[in-house]
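TL;DR need structure tokens for one chain.
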Amino acid sequence: MAADYLVRERDARAKLNAKKNFDRRNSAKDLPHLEEGQRVLVMDKTRQQPAVVVGDHNAPRSVVVETSTGLLRRNRRHLAELPPETPLQPAPLEEPPQPLPPAPLAGNASLTWNAPLVRNAPPVKTRSGRLVKPVQRLDL
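>> reply
TL;DR here they are.
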């Protein structure tokens, strides 16, 4: 019986040391606690969905959140905190930009393609030394 107790104690100590070393090597930290009513983003495989924290769940590191589709239980690492002043919906643009009016043509001038402007700027090189060629686009 005493040997059984010693084996269990030694095993528990070894597991604790292994956890401590793993956490130290991988900079493992607990995520901050989410308060009830706090706004979060629920991260799914394909999308992010706004939600509100309802409360903690019985399972460790699990939180119950309310989304537009209903109540969900999610692991804490799948929830991202939203700042209180961040709107849930993207703000609409104030005014779309107005297109420029077409320039009047002088006399019998016809539309022709203008060659791109050539600048006398020094060539741009990447960190590895390759020459960066500017993109040539058709300017209509």
